[in-house]
Structures are given as C-alpha cells and as structure tokens.
Design brief:
By secondary structure, the protein is an alpha+beta fold. It is built from four helices and ten strands. The radius of gyration is 17 Å and the shape is globular.
C-alpha cells in the first residue's frame, strides 16, 4: 500500500506543478477537445482486439495480501453475478478502481479466470490556466487498449496504452486535453 500511495503522491505532485504541466502539454487545453478515443486516429483498433472469453469467473483473488482485496473480491463477485458487464476489459479481465480522496483514482486489473491481480495506474486531474483538466479513463471488453486523460507517472495529457503480458505499455501520448468548465 505504501508503494501505491507513494506513486500516487508523486504523480499528484508532478501533475500539480504548473511548470511541468506547461512543459509537457505543449498544446493548450481545449474546452471543446475531441473525445478521448478520437485523439488517437493513427491507432489501428483492430490490431488490439481481445478474444471473447466465456469461462468461469474465479471464486477468489489469488493474492490474499493485496492492499485492496475487498474491492477486488467485490469486483469478482460482481463479475460472477453479472457476466455481461462484470468482465469489462481485454476479453477476460476486470478493471476495478478506488479513489484517493481528491481528484484522482487508481485502479488494478484482475484476470477473471485465475483471480490474479495486476498493477494499473494512478490518474489525477491537474490545474491549468484555462481551468481544470479532469481525469478520464476509457476501455472496452473487446479491446486491450486503455485511454487515459490526466496526470500519470509518465506526465500529463492524453495517453493510450496496450495491456499485454500483465502490464500497460504506452503506445502514444497527445498533449490535447479537455478542460472541465
């Protein structure tokens, strides 16, 4: 838990730094920015399709000492009770999130078949001269792509990641962000 909190605190400190935000987000935030997924037209979404999975959802998480095991168990239970909605990412995975008490969230990914938990990201909103860049997260059951807007460890802006081999791999970054009015 200390590692997650330390990473999140670092991401928040970096994201809140006006100098860093201005340096990393070369384009000014836009009140009418295109939707998050549309900011990455060069991504061939078909290349990142996830095969459908119809197996049995694990009864419990594999890591009994995980810091957010109650949330993880609740996510598995929801997936067992709601098969059409519970498994919500990359074919056979479940994304579950939790807040930090301010304008940020963190999330993890569970393999629905095994109950194994993988690390996700911590995401925060951040202030800019034009307003506030709100965090945003988009993903689908049929794709290994994860779209993020906000401040993360890699910087600020809009990002697209591929979930592969239990890790998120950065594919593209865009300085274009939407601003909350």
């Amino acid at each position: 838990m200390k590692l997650h909190l330390a990473s999140l605190a670092l991401a928040l400190a970096v994201a809140a730094s006006p100098a860093f935000a201005k340096e990393y987000t070369a384009a000014p935030p836009q009140k009418d920015a295109p939707p998050l997924v549309q900011r990455f037209p060069a991504i061939d979404k078909a290349k990142y399709a996830a095969p459908a999975w119809s197996g049995k959802v694990a009864r419990d998480i594999a890591d009994k000492k995980h810091n957010f095991r109650t949330r993880a168990r609740d996510a598995l239970k929801y997936a067992r009770e709601n098969p059409a909605e519970g498994v919500n990412f990359a074919g056979k995975y479940i994304i579950f999130s939790y807040g930090c008490g301010t304008s940020c969230i963190a999330f993890n990914v569970i393999d629905a078949a095994s109950g194994k938990i993988f690390d996700g990201l911590g995401i925060s909103g951040y202030p800019v001269e034009e307003g506030w860049v709100d965090l945003n997260l988009k993903y689908e059951k049929s794709s290994t792509l994860l779209y993020v807007q906000g401040g993360i460890e890699q910087g600020t802006g809009s990002f697209v990641f591929e979930f592969k081999d239990g890790k998120f791999h950065l594919l593209q970054h865009s300085p274009v962000v939407g601003v909350e009015e």
